[in-house]
Amino acid sequence: MLGTISADWIAIEVLQGGALLQGWAIGPGGEVLAQARGTGGNNGGDLEPAVLELAGGWLAHGRATLVLVSGAMAAGLRDVPCPPLSLPLWPVPAKDPRLDLRLVPGLAQRARVKGMMRGAETRIAGVLAARPGWDGVICLPGPETHWAELSAAEVVGFRSYMTAELFGLIAPTGDPGPQDASDETAFAEALARGMARPQALAGRLSQLRAEGVLDAHPADAGAQLWGLLIGAELAAARGWWLGRDVVIVGEGRLAQLYATALAAQGVGTQQIDADMAALAGLAQARGLLRNQT
Amino acid sequence: MLGTISADWIAIEVLQGGALLQGWAIGPGGEVLAQARGTGGNNGGDLEPAVLELAGGWLAHGRATLVLVSGAMAAGLRDVPCPPLSLPLWPVPAKDPRLDLRLVPGLAQRARVKGMMRGAETRIAGVLAARPGWDGVICLPGPETHWAELSAAEVVGFRSYMTAELFGLIAPTGDPGPQDASDETAFAEALARGMARPQALAGRLSQLRAEGVLDAHPADAGAQLWGLLIGAELAAARGWWLGRDVVIVGEGRLAQLYATALAAQGVGTQQIDADMAALAGLAQARGLLRNQT
Fold first, then answer.
1. Does A233 touch chain B (CB under 8 A)?
2. How confident is the model over A10-30, as pLDDT tens digits?
3. Complex ipTM, two decimals?
4. Does domain A160-273 have CATH number 3.30.420.310?
């Protein structure tokens, strides 16, 4: 127990379908006092022990500290079109009296193309907080990549692609993507092929396997697979980026792959750090609660 | 030990990349005396114990019995264009003096589109044995599906698609495909979608997940996934079936899915049982050896 930090409130983001949590202890002026990552419980029922393990040291004694959680499976879903964030949040009964645990609802799209997002809505709210009135498309790469259309401060609709999850299932190793210049060339070529002939995936996988045996210096399979899969996604999501103002909210290499891929189509993007967006979104939720009381 | 069967020679097919073996004890007139299935050693080095476990009871004492094996990883590769089967076979040194173990080489395609097949070449030889001089396309569904072009008794070229392996990686369960009429409708619709918009795969996977939560009666995800993946394969392999004479060599539901999918494109197919083709191909190899001596 650190015991030295007493948070005004705590922001937590559930990641990777519940496998991972990250949290921030927030001070009374909105400043970040501490940050931590930990393994997650998978849903609301299991959430309390995971929250206590991550953030127990930030809890004051003698009062309940507000803990706002985005991305939790147990949170309800709100139907688009709607603002990315609005009250009520979902209170979760906690055994520990120091916890006032509330979940940010996800978004559901029940129109012809069904969709769900949990956590991305909070990142979107964080982006909007910094640029009120901004209209455009926000691309949120992750295990599922979401493309959300923002207009008049509402999520009008969204489309989701299991691209990175597919990569994880198919790739022999957890290859993170292009590592050097020759890999980048392989990525760019596969991207073009994936966009032009997305049906080639299963055939290209067989070829990569054969090249691994028959070629003396086989090209990097991971870079090619990323190119094929992101290329197919861009072909499918064309209406979401062609001639659009696109903001990418993501982290590290995956966000960079999307930016590179969109740049190859002549689409300039702006990248926003995913953690900063999540934290800003959770601060927005905190503000909504404060204004309510 | 059964001890009652003494095979003239033994035919073995290695399946699923080495995980499975099936074998036949063959009598002096070419008749099948017994059939068995077992788990496999993965390559030539491990093959002997797996062969002994499967077929040890069929071995005569006091002489070495010829055991012909197709599909083994340890066998060499012959470059297309070439006949599906030709001498030499690959002898494997065996510790057990009752074994005369020989492997049928696979085929390699080193042209622009790299490819390999191990075992399919023997099935192709079995098909050709029954119809000398036949030209056309043989489609061999399996973990990898091969499309082979036959002309003047040679495999001119082939193309491979990891479609069923992809299904196995992506599908939440080992769903075998459409089970009833409503599933067949879902398969047919997804097939059309997979052919027309193969780039939709990652997006459709996200939709299926959302439908599983949001819909009261979600459509069968397995049937849809088979439709999408086989549809994408048919779109990629169009030149291999459009206006062609196609023979499907496969078994059970997977072969039936390909036949249904091709029928929906107006392509009539003839189905040949995979086991019979393998056995006929191994008998052809036996004949080549006999003619040599």
1. yes
2. 999 999 888 899 999 999 989
3. 0.84
4. yes
